[in-house]
Amino acid sequence: MPIVDVSTGISLAYETFGDPGDPPVLLVMGFGAQMLAWHEDFCRALADRGRYVIRYDNRDCGLSTTFDAHPVDMGTFIAAVSSGDIPAARAMVPYRLLDMAEDGLGLLTALRVERAHVVGASMGGMIAQTMALSFPERVLTLTSMMSSTGEREYGQPSPEAQAVLFGPRPADREGYVAAAERELVWASRRYADAEALRESAAAQYDRAYYPAGIARQLGAMVLSGSRADGLRGLRVPTLVIHGLDDTLIDPSGGIRTAELVPGAELLLVPDMGHDRPRRLWPRIIDALAAHTG
User: Fold this and answer.
1) Are 144 and 231 in contact (CB under 8 A)?
2) What is the domain count for the chain?
3) Is residue 197 part of a domain?
4) Which residues pair with 238 in a beta bridge?
5) Residue 1 pLDDT greater than 90, yes or no
6) What are phi and psi of 83, to 5 degrees?
7) d(Cα 151, Cα 159) in Å, to the nearest integer?
């Protein structure tokens, strides 16, 4: 997979699908997940609908630039935020969602794409929203999937999902792969597939096991704050997709996003959790094709 410099000191690994002459769709992945989480078959299916699909690793993940010089202990960071010591929390984390948004747009620039349809999932939805808010001239349409607005009142995880998200995961390959089953807590209940979770975990572990970036990405999310005021004035055509089974980011996060953005379309998907089960790809891809057409 190619790697390209997108700004001073930042390089991103990326992959493209389809014809560069087709409308470009930038896929932005979520917290701690490599671009592999946008399944290759999903990307090809969207490309087959006449889209030039671009997926990439966010900074501090996969094969993109990492910030080893800024170690962050997740427990220490969470304790600082919980105690209200925001200055200490800010001092720990070297970047924010805006920086991650600029990374993605820098990739488009490197690929000579002036404007793109931007689709973000989970934290990727927050990054995509930030792209649309800060650089609306670069965003043809926005799709915010299984995401939220940054307001504490909406989109909060269930206690069980939060425990899995922030819980320790084994460092050895066998243990890491086996522990992927814990993610069933936020998966689509009807289409839950433990074997698929293990296969995905194995692929990501073998490609680029890098847990150190997770705490910094968490800090970027937490410290970037609410986007509510900006979303109220957003004029980029917006689609919001959220699964009704989602326990990691409660559906209220998607509902609130659609309420705030003028003219936003809301697609609430039954039997979908905080994942994209293959059985639901046709519905999701149909919605993306219609929105980006």
Assistant:
1) no
2) 1
3) no
4) 142
5) no
6) -85, -5
7) 18
Q: Does residue 25 lie in a domain region? A: yes
Measured N-to-C along each axis, helices 97-110 and 213-224 cross at an angle, to the nearest 10 degrees, of 110
DSSP string, 23-35: PEEEEE--TT--G
Q: If residue 10 lies in a helix (H) or strand (E), which one and from where to where?
A: strand 10-17
| pLDDT (tens digit per residue) in 213-266 | 999 999 999 999 999 999 999 999 999 999 999 999 999 999 999 999 999 999
What's this model's pTM, rounded to 2 decimal places? 0.97
- C-alpha triplet 112, 115, 121: angle, nearest 5°: 110
Expressed as residue numbers, the domain containing 21 is 3-157+211-291
Task: Count Cβ atoms within 10 A of the Cβ of residue 71 and give its class: 0-12 exposed, 13-18 middle, 19 or more buried.
Answer: exposed
- Say which residue the tokens 């997770």 belong to: 214
Please give the Cα distance from 205 to 33 (Å, whole number).
Answer: 11
Q: At which residue do the structure tokens 């965003």 appear?
A: 139
Distance between CA atoms of 34 and 31, rounded to whole angstroms?
A: 9
